[in-house]
Design goal:
A two-stranded antiparallel sheet has the order 1-2. A two-stranded antiparallel ribbon has the order 3-4. The protein has about 100 residues and is of the alpha+beta class. The structure holds zinc ion. The site of zinc ion has 8 residues, from strand 4 and helix 1.
């Protein structure tokens, strides 16, 4: 193994299997030296991939929840509440518009 020959200016990137300048690395509180084991480019890419993956999972969960809410009797209450608050908002903005104009 000839990796981990970190110098003052360069660090080994565990993901690219090559050396990068220290500036290419982000911080990582969990790592022993406080520096991420992979360069920022990899971490960013990985985070984005994770996010996309979670987004799919989250969307699936949300649509399931939405379906459950629609199916339940609470849906009516919930819809009425929203209708009421919408109407209230409209009434408020309407009175705000009319008063002060005369
Ligand atoms: Zn790298």
């Amino acid at each position: 193994m000839k990796h981990r020959h970190s110098t003052d200016t360069e660090l080994w990137c565990g993901a690219c299997k090559t050396m990068h300048p220290r500036s290419a690395f982000g911080k990582d509180k969990k790592s022993p030296n406080g520096i991420a084991y992979a360069c920022k480019a990899i971490v960013t890419k990985r985070n984005r991939a994770m996010h996309t993956k979670n987004k799919t999972a989250n969307n699936a969960r949300h649509s399931k929840l939405r379906a459950a809410r629609k199916a339940s009797s609470e849906h009516i209450t919930w819809a009425l509440k929203r209708l009421l608050s919408d109407a209230k908002q409209r009434a408020l903005s309407y009175s705000r518009h009319t008063t002060g104009r005369q």
